[in-house]
Amino acid sequence: MKRKMSVLWVCMILILAGRGYAVDSQASLGTQAGEAARDLKDTANESFSTGAMKVAESSRKVEAEVQSTVKTLQEQWEVLAKQLQEKTKRIQTQVQQQWQDFNKSLNQPPKS
């Protein structure tokens, strides 16, 4: 019986020592969760930084395209405005000439 008791005690000591070693060698669930959360946070920060850089780059490209388009539109508008001004001046000259012709015709004695 003493021998059985000794073997039982030795087995219990070994089991408890093994459990203690296993618990000590592994991080607790709280530690594991904290490490996983930190990894996720780092990944999220990386993703956010990458996304922010892409958005900023796209924004710069769009801004450059808009500036180019505005410049082109201004150049085209200047050409159109000049053409419109010239046509308006020609029409004004024609209307004045027609008005003068009308007045001459009105004030001339009738041809018989």
Strand portion, in percent? under 5%
C-alpha end-to-end distance: 161 Å
Main sheet specs: none
Rg computed from alpha carbons, rounded to a whole number of angstroms: 47 Å
The tally of helices reads 2
Listing every helix as H and every strand as E from the N terminus to the C terminus, the arrangement reads: HH
User: Total number of β-strand segments?
Assistant: 0
Low-confidence segments, given as residue ranges, are none
Q: What is the global morphology?
A: rod-shaped
The helix/strand class is mainly alpha
Would you tell me the overall average pLDDT?
A: 84
> Fraction of residues in helices?
over 70%
In summary, what is this structure?
By secondary structure, the chain is mainly α.
What does this entry look like structurally?
The protein has 112 residues and is an all-alpha fold. It has two helices and no strands. The protein has helices at residues 2-25, 29-107. The longest helix has 79 residues, at 29-107. The radius of gyration is 47 Å and the shape is rod-shaped. 0% of the residues are buried. The model has no long low-confidence stretch (mean pLDDT 84).
Topology:
Blueprint: H1 2-25, H2 29-107
Core attributes:
rod-shaped, mainly alpha, 112 residues, 2 helices, single chain
